[in-house]
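Inputs:
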Amino acid sequence: MLAELTANAVADALSRRESAPLAEVEAAALARPAALDAIEALRPGSRVKVIAEIKRSSPSRGALASIEDPAALARRYELGGASAISVLTEGRKFGGSLADLEAVRQAVALPVLRKDFIATPYQVFEARAAGADLVLLIVAALDDPTLRELYDLIVELGMTPLIETHAADELERAAALGARLIGVNARDLSTFELDRDLFGRLAPLFPEGAIRVAESAVLSVADVVHYRSSGADVVLVGEALVTGGDPIANLSTFLAV
Ligand SMILES: O=C(O)c1ccccc1NCC(=O)[C@H](O)[C@H](O)COP(=O)(O)O
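Outputs:
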């Protein structure tokens, strides 16, 4: 069953009255310099890679960090060795915005992910217009034709789709797209429960050659070790980095795994 939060966010996206006409956002997206190569940045190496997230609050944890200057935090992440930056752009539950993404884009030379409940081509153009290099698609939130349409548009605009899954059948749907970057979110979006073992159970189902991203629930180095030993190439970390003091010091411990 589609989580209520996700269903509402998708319904919002579908019914939104846009502030700018599609043609304008499309033109702004096409006028941007080429997107950065996220596949290259996240290519598996001898150590785990980190996508570091700008996250102010969340439905499961409430307020996490005020983050008055997302660009400054992104620069710290870059200095600390992150391979990409995730920016939550959803406003109501996560306190994010496209303005955050634009600010981060200008501050760092790393690929930037638009992390949101993406359900329309408009949002994909908006992401590119704001400078995103990657766009998250949540398999559970989209039917196959929409998933395909949005996936193809992201690729056509030169960006990289990060395909988020939470179950075996969703990984099959991600594989059918030809996805090169696939995440398993440990967080059940209906109950918010965290299952750090889910990644390991689904890891054998990843298609050959896909980059494997473990999303959510990294609170300590032990969690990174756990994901890495289960086959993760990349971990996506929010809460631990925005609440854990010096992000550079935290990243250095994660990146040693
Ligand atoms: O974080 C939440 O509570 C949440 C609830 C419902 C949908 C999505 C949610 N979070 C988005 C994410 O996937 C995480 O921000 C990201 O994976 C980082 O997770 P964490 O390191 O556990 O903060």
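Remarks. The pocket of LARABZUK is lined by residues 5, 53, 55, 58-61, 185, 187, 189, 192, 215-218, 236-240 (CB under 6 Å). DSSP finds twelve helices and ten strands in the chain.
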